[in-house]
Design a protein that fits this description.
three-stranded antiparallel beta sheet, single chain, five-stranded mixed beta sheet, globular, 150 residues, mainly beta, 2 domains, SH3 type barrels
Length: 150
């Protein structure tokens, strides 16, 4: 990695014991001994605005992990998001129901999140993938999942 790349460090915002799909990993250039993992994460940039913007956006972020505390494995299913229409973002929901009142954020096409399980929406045959998104359990409809990665 070169100094010209801007790194968004979400380390203090990411909760422990949660699975993330990483796209890249490098040693921390600051010499901390940590490994930096590039992940997709739901970030709320507008919390300092008045009134606060509580809508989150999927961003590429770097997570600093101290030596010996990570476990690389295959917990959950990695899903690559892809909007089914002409949009280049996928809506992320707080509940597994297709209701715009439940939209808590968005994520760009080709972003990848780990899903620990799926559910069917009550009274329908709509399948939903659970994802970890901005400190929350969030949901994306299966129609917005372009690929399930193995």
């Amino acid at each position: 990695m070169t100094a010209a790349i801007e790194i968004t460090d979400e380390t203090v915002n990411v909760e422990a014991n949660v699975s993330y799909y990483f796209l890249d990993k490098v040693k921390d250039q600051a010499g901390t001994g940590c490994t930096m993992y590039q992940i997709w994460y739901g970030s709320q940039a507008g919390l300092s605005a008045s009134p606060p913007d509580k809508f989150a956006h999927g961003i590429l972020a770097w997570l600093a992990v101290p030596p010996g505390v990570n476990q690389i494995g295959s917990s959950g299913t990695a899903v690559e998001l892809r909007a089914s229409g002409s949009s280049d973002v996928v809506k992320v929901y707080g509940r597994p129901t297709l209701n715009d009142e439940n939209v808590i954020g968005d994520a760009p096409n080709n972003s990848v999140f780990v899903s620990m399980f799926t559910v069917l929406e009550d009274g329908t045959d709509h399948l939903w993938y659970e994802i970890n998104y901005n400190h929350r359990q969030a949901w994306v409809p299966a129609t917005e999942v372009g690929k399930v990665l193995t």
